[in-house]
């Protein structure tokens, strides 16, 4: 099989992804049915074509199961936190607080998904933002599918600097460190490896900052188009001024922090500053449209919008029923604080990740693949710790506690059935290398690169997005492809740090359609079985994001002139200008 031409090997490497898209997105199978088929297809190609050793396939599968259990722990904690607030009745006070701030669902989506979600991404990453933001949106009256869609769309701009910079400091760093070609380049440039990472991070921030400014506009336009009574993009575009303000409130400090402090804190600090600015603006009615937008009556909702997470639709009493808004928000404040502290205080992080509290299986069955779990460091443990504290804060009774745990365990089973095959499929795909062939993702990237030549910067973000879709992680995508992207840049004679930055940007955008994130977020709101419908929707903004990043990359490398990058920038600018003009006309009308 090693003699097969690159074109054939590329198609075979693409087959596992094609199987996922066919069954999950096109045929709309539930993930719990589609992913076992995808796993078997991947194992078959790995063993029959790639000649991957059986022990390696088993080792990768076991590592995948352990990783799936880590994800399920996070999902369970997020579900339990919401069900605890439901059982205590305090979720209604949170709902009323948002209604008092602004009853406009568009504004609520920007505050909760875009800004609060970005803050959680900056602290924790690992799909945690969607697991927190989506159920919170459902709790205040969003259809489950709408809540998950907007929570996934924001899994883009904040992601590259999520988990205090892990995709750059671990992902890109691991991909490039100690590589002879990279070392030689840095010696020729006279800069250190850390300075080079800073340069890449700043490029990432500038590209993300440009595109991210428009993410709230795209997100809100999709919200009104797919979930409004009138099925209209215009109703979202009508608040273009506030959307751009919400975008800039995060992206301007985000870029500034990347420039001044490096890759650890752009998302964390940018989102905090953004929340302060946007909440203040809402209170002052700054740039808000005159008309309030809401979903149609629940009785008119399409059945596919609904999950099995039920929250009472109306609030009969105000915030005084259970105490102050600060008290009822305290579980979210506690979990956010714990996430930040455990990720930024080195002694605390070391205590939670040390050998004594790490479950590890090195070199599984002699496969060369290792796996581990650090349960005390996972966000799931912090969720459960917060829930335990909440029992005292809300003086909950035994029956309330029992109900919250029972409902949470019930919601977890569907996600387990999907993830227990989805994650091992990914790990077999990534760990498919043999003596004859490199791992499938690299063969796939090699095949794609042969088609583009000097236009490679245009497609580089798409490779990053593909890696995140496959691996479920911007960090893993960067580990897999950063050196490949560096080599492609050298091959076509362009700036390496820009192309590697485009990889990281695309890897962040790919989180919008990553099966892990979609299944996890769907599980939290009881929407399992409709993952394909969600991916069909989020594929639109993901494609726009990756293309926009590629266009900006071409301009950064080749400059403004008579070239493809400039043409693409003109077209992208015209598209965004059209959206704004359409929104302006709608708001005046």
SSE inventory with pairings:
Layout: H1 6-26, H2 31-48, H3 54-88, H4 91-101, H5 105-123, H6 128-139, H7 144-153, H8 162-176, H9 180-189, H10 193-212, H11 215-227, H12 234-237, H13 240-261, H14 266-283, H15 325-344, H16 346-353, E1 359-361, E2 371-373, H17 379-393, H18 398-430, H19 440-449, H20 456-471, H21 474-492, H22 496-509, H23 515-524, H24 531-558, H25 564-588
Antiparallel strand pairs: 1-2
Write out key terms for the chains shown.
589 residues, mainly alpha, two-stranded antiparallel ribbon, 25 helices, 72% helix, globular
Query: Major beta sheet, specifics?
Result: 2 strands, antiparallel
Mean pLDDT: 90
Return Rg in Å.
23 Å
Shape: globular
Total beta strand runs: 2
Strand order of the largest sheet: 1-2
Strand content: under 5%
Structural class: mainly alpha
> How far apart are the termini?
64 Å
What does this structure look like?
With 589 residues, the protein is mainly α. Helix content is 72%, strand content 1%. The protein contains 25 helices and two strands. Strands 1-2 form a two-stranded antiparallel ribbon. Helix 7 runs parallel beside helix 24 (531-558), helix 11 packs antiparallel against helix 13 and helix 20 packs across helix 22 (496-509).
